[in-house]
Amino acid sequence: MTILHLRRARTSLVLDARGPGLPRVVHWGGDVGDLDDDGLRHLTDATVPPVVPSSFDEPTVLSVLPEASAGWSGRPGLAGHRDGAGWSTAFRLDGLDVDQPADGPARVTVRASDPAAGLTVTIEITLDPYGLLTVRHRLRNDGDSAYELRELTPVLPVPAVATELLDLTGRWCRERSPQRHPWQHGAWVREGRHGRTGHDATLLLVAGTTGFGFGHGEVWAVHTAWSGDHVTFAERRPTGESTLGGGELPAPGEVRLDPGESYETPLLYAVWSDTGLDGLSDVLHTHLRARPGHPRSPRPVTLNVWEAVYFDHDLDRLRALADRAAQIGVERFVLDDGWFRGRRDDTAGLGDWYVDEGVWPDGLQPLIDHVTGQGLQFGLWVEPEMVNPDSDVFRAHPDWVLAVPGRLPPAWRHQQVLDLGRPEAYDYVLERLDTLLTDHPGIRYLKWDQNRDLTEAGHHGRPGVHGQTLAVYRLFDELRNRHPGVEIESCSSGGARVDLAILARTDRVWASDCNDALERLSIQRWTGLLLPPELIGTHVGPERSHTTNRVHDLGFRAATALFGHHGIEWDIASISAAEQTELAAWVALHKRLRPLLHAGRVVRVDHPDPAVWAHGVVDHDNTRAVYAVARLATSVTQLPGAVRLPGLDPGRRYRVRQVSGVPAPASIDLSPPTWLAAGLTLSGAALARVGVQLPALHPEQSLVLEVDAVD
Ligand code: DGJ
């Protein structure tokens, strides 16, 4: 056994695996250079704390699975018991596999056991080529009686220089709202008991040095990749240790391991940066883009008809929408909720996945043919995990829902959750979706919705969220296997299922049901902390937002929707000719910029005026960039100062100009900055350190700038 040093990109992980106990993370953070054995030993020694008064006689060192037997009195890495026994462990190291290829991810697998407790644990630690760390524990019951697992969470240490915490919360139509506070003693615990990821789930929990921002500060962050009940936490002990961790949150009795059975934690993703939050996103985005299954074809500009027609499905009206969409440059047409049997509103029909014969007497094929005939791809909405009590499937199988015996969970949008842990329910849904796709090869995209929490979600009398989550993953995987060409969107009452486990089986997320461009700026900014723009659906909504009643001009709506997987959710058949022309220009602009937007590095500007937001995307060889500057509200200061444009090569010169092809936003100054008319040429260093003065925009307006290297 040894001290291991994993080094990838600019990140180091030093692991003291000399035993006899579980390995300890000596360092997770910036690269510590090429250390020989002596160097690693000295680094390890340097991080062992002294013994202090009124404490254990030996220093307490924190392992990746903290145990009381090693002197840990914070949140336990493992909580569980065997009918009152085996509740405390002292794992001993049995073996270590290390795989450190010259390129590719570095991997360590640690095997440890506690024969007295009858448990074996396997810990997998991977540092990918971009500096992204993942940790996963697997626990096996080697005893001869059942072991009830309450919690098993990987934990990573963070140094004391991290003094502030940032995480995200939210609700329907206000997903991923940041909250920030000093990191004090105690545990900041973000628990999600929604049975799904949740509108309030923190995509990342970030700890950082005082005042960290998008472009500065040292930051450590974790993400718990699980779509059921889960916990992500930051803990600071009065004894001096600080940790980040996360895992599943099983209900009492939910994870019971019979002899020989194992439990595997979700992956805990961990990422470090010394260039602020943008540095975190950079590592995460690069990791996601390198996945073999990452969508690589140009992301089709999408028309989703939900806010255009809601449940009012009429073939002629939908055809007219498709015609208009084609004229505007749309590439994918998605028929939303309302096409299946009995679904005239949201009170009935879920579960009856047959085309409604009354509304669609000739089936969906005439619409599919019309849409594809216009050169657009066809997509369809489904909500496979749900059932309305007012449906044929529920009437025939009232026992197919997740519930405790004798009562149904409180209704939510008039619906209940199908118990996909029951093979017959699972098979039914799989057969319906499979048949739908087989019978309609024109369906190339599913908008997979999930519109309620799992409440009192019992499966045969026991808690069922864990099993349901795994069954849902199986359903996605099986369907993808049978229909590999069909893309899937993860939607969940807007953005309530955004996590890296669901994204392992889907091609984008619907970030929110709120298409109000002002709200969306924030939702997209913070969703983008984890996800690159091509995975985030961003649609141009109607002039008056359906969810906030705010009115925005088209330029602001379109400039906001530009920076994602672009689309439209608006009754474009009823818009004016001028709106149609302008919308088509924005769609064309998106298509022109798409290769940059969907592959480049995302930067967000730390501007001192909270009413001015700027963000951009810079391509990887620093030759091109696009930035948007948005005014969110009025400011006390008349002019907010020059806006810096970071992320470019400091030594190259760039031409900066207002983006062409779309109308300029209205501004309130008598004469805009002189440079704007003809553009200007400045070095990347000057753009990042000085920036440019911009027109005094009206509140809720955006200006888009295009930047090209000139040498
Ligand atoms: C919730 C989704 O978030 C919406 O986009 C829409 O698909 C509705 N469900 C349909 O019921």
TrEMBL record:
Recorded catalytic activity of this chain's protein: Hydrolysis of terminal, non-reducing alpha-D-galactose residues in alpha-D-galactosides, including galactose oligosaccharides, galactomannans and galactolipids
CDD domains listed in its UniProt record: GH36 (cd14791)
Signal sequence, start to end: none
Protein name: Alpha-galactosidase
Alphabetical keyword list: Glycosidase, Hydrolase
Domain Glycosyl hydrolase family 36 N-terminal: 21-257
UniProt cross-references to PROSITE patterns, sorted A to Z: ALPHA_GALACTOSIDASE (PS00512)
Positions of substrate binding: W172, D336, D337, R413, K447, W448, D449, Q450, N451, C491, D513
Organism: Micromonospora arida
Keyword Hydrolase: yes
Domain of life: Bacteria
Active site feature: D449 (nucleophile), D513 (proton donor)
Parts forming coiled coils: none
Protein family (similarity comment): Belongs to the glycosyl hydrolase.
Single Gene Ontology MF annotation: alpha-galactosidase activity
Glycosyl hydrolase family 36 C-terminal domain ranges (all copies): 614-704
EC numbers, comma separated: 3.2.1.22
GO biological process: carbohydrate catabolic process
